[in-house]
Structure formats: structure tokens, C-alpha cells
Amino acid sequence: MKPARLTAWIGFGLGTAFFLLPLIGTVEFSLRARRGVYSLDAYRNVITDPQFHQTLGYSAILSVLTVILGALIVAPTAFWVRLKLPRLRPVVEFITLLPLVIPPIVIVFGYIRMYNTSSLLPLTGTSLGTDLLLTCGYATLSLPYMYRAIDTGLRTLDIRALTEAAQSLGAGWGIILVRVILPNLTVAILSGAFLTFAIVIGEYVLAALLNRPAFGPWMVWMGGNRAYEPAALAVMAFALTWGAMGLIQLLSRFSPSRQAAR
Q1: What is the rounded distance in angstroms from the CA atom of residue 89 to the CA atom of residue 133?
Q2: Which residues of the chain register pLDDT less than 70?
Q3: Degrees, nearest 5: CA angle 196-202-208
Q4: DSSP assignment of 162-175
Q5: Any residues with CB less than 8 A from the CB of 16 and at least 6 apart, and which?
Q6: CA 35, 39, 44: angle at the middle one, nearest 5?
Q7: Which of 75, 202, 231, 236 has its CA 20 to 30 A from that of 92?
Q8: CB atoms within 10 A of CB 232
Q9: 8 Å CB contact between 108 and 206
Q10: What is the DSSP string of 66-130?
Q11: Cβ distance 203 to 103 under 8 Å?
Q12: Residue 4, CB half-sphere, CA atoms under 13 Å: how many?
């Protein structure tokens, strides 16, 4: 074997061990809830906990709402900027990067300050209003990832030719966006949706300070009060992540752009 190939295989092996050994250790530890034998007691305790279903269901609903809100904001904006205002792309990209610079605690304290019960718009006074604030906060945190996923999808399309062809057939801007552009961005939106889902499921600061029953605060509570169940939760979250990635790859095979390429 050539030295270069041997070095590449050694690097690949070290990298694989770096990622797999902690996972194997976590799985092994999560199976030790019953002394002396391996068991699934930690997983059973997590799944049978009513808070697991309530918090996961709550965060899943908010993640769907966040994806819808983010796609409705980002997709038309990225399409219009790329088509009509290309000089503003650096400005828009800078704005979408701000959530990576501004800490979530600053965002949530701004929400509490502006929308408390003594303000003109007391959203924090009701559960529905607080859920709306939390959804907006999640959409803000996911903005860098959703925008770049959709913008990358738009780069693969000749949107000017598609737009002109649709206009020549009498389509308006709404029809162009809904029936021409968005179907070709399915994979990009799914990629942004996956990242958004990961953010919503694991986010702690916004949900905790707004006092909402989300999955992130419950995981933090579980980690501070249990021994083996947090490891089981980590393994389950890892499996859910890879399952979502596999689902994205499966759905991408049936996207309009992939079918057209064939």
C-alpha cells in the first residue's frame, strides 16, 4: 500500500474512532440502569415518562410552525433578492448572520421587555401569545441555516429563465413562487427544516425564560436529576437525527429537480 493511501486510511480510522467511541460508551452506559446486567430500563423510563410525550409533542408542533414561518419569510426574500436585487445579497446575508452573534438570552429578554403584561402588546400574558413569541424566537435562531439552505437551492436553478417562461404563460408572481420555484426547492427547504427541528428540540434559553413546556428544558432537568436516562435520551436523539437525515435523502430522490435531471 502506498504511503499516501496508508496515511489516508489511518486518518479515516482515527476520525471514525473519535466519533464512534463516545457513542459506543454512551450506549453502553445507558444499558447499565439495572446493576450487573444490560437492560433497556433507562429507555423504558424515558418513554413511559408523561413529560417526555408532552414536551416532545409541544416542541415538535413548534418546530413545524417554525419551519412554515421561516420558509414563508426566507423563500420569497431569497428569490426576490437573487432575481431583482443582487446587490443587496451581502446585506441580506449579514442580517441573516446576526442570530449567530446575538446571544439567545438577549433576544428573549428583549421579548420580555417589549411584550410583557404592562406593554401595549402584552403577548406574555397569555399562553398563546407566549407560544407565538417562542415560535418567532425559534425562527430567528434558525434564520442563518434556513436562508443558506434555500439560497443554495436557488443557486442550482436558473430562476430568471423559469420566471420568464412562467410569465410568458401568464403566471403572476404568486403562481411563479408557489408552483414553479418552491417545488424545485423541496430538498433545500427540507435541509433547512431538519436544522430548524434540531434547534427547536435542543434549545433551552428561550423556552426556559418564557416558561414554556418544551423538550430542551425537560432534557436539562432530566440531566440534573437522573443518571442513566440522560444517556438514553442522547442515544435516542442521535438515532432521531440520523433518521431525519435518511428521510431527507429519500425524499430528495423524488424531488422535481432530480426527476427532471433523469
Answers
A1: 28
A2: 1-2, 248-249, 251-262
A3: 115
A4: HHHHHHHTT--HHH
A5: none
A6: 115
A7: 202
A8: 25
A9: yes
A10: HHHHHHHHHHHHHHHHHHT-GGGHHHHHHHHHHHHHS-HHHHHHHHHHHSSTTSSS-GGGSHHHH
A11: no
A12: 0
| 168/173 Cα distance (integer angstroms) | 12
What is the per-residue pLDDT for 54?
93
- What is the DSSP code (8-state) at residue 2? -
Sign, CA dihedral 78-79-81-83, equals positive
Q: How far is CA 109 from CA 50, 106, 169, 196, 221, in A?
A: 30, 5, 50, 22, 22
Q: What is the model's pLDDT at position 78? A: 92
Nearest to 194 by CA among 245, 234, 252, 148: 245
The set of cell numbers assigned to 23 is 457513542
What cell does 123 get? 403577548
pTM attached to this predicted model: 0.83
Q: Which amino acid appears at position 181 of this protein? A: I
Using CA atoms, how far apart are residues 156 and 15, in angstroms rounded to an integer? 31
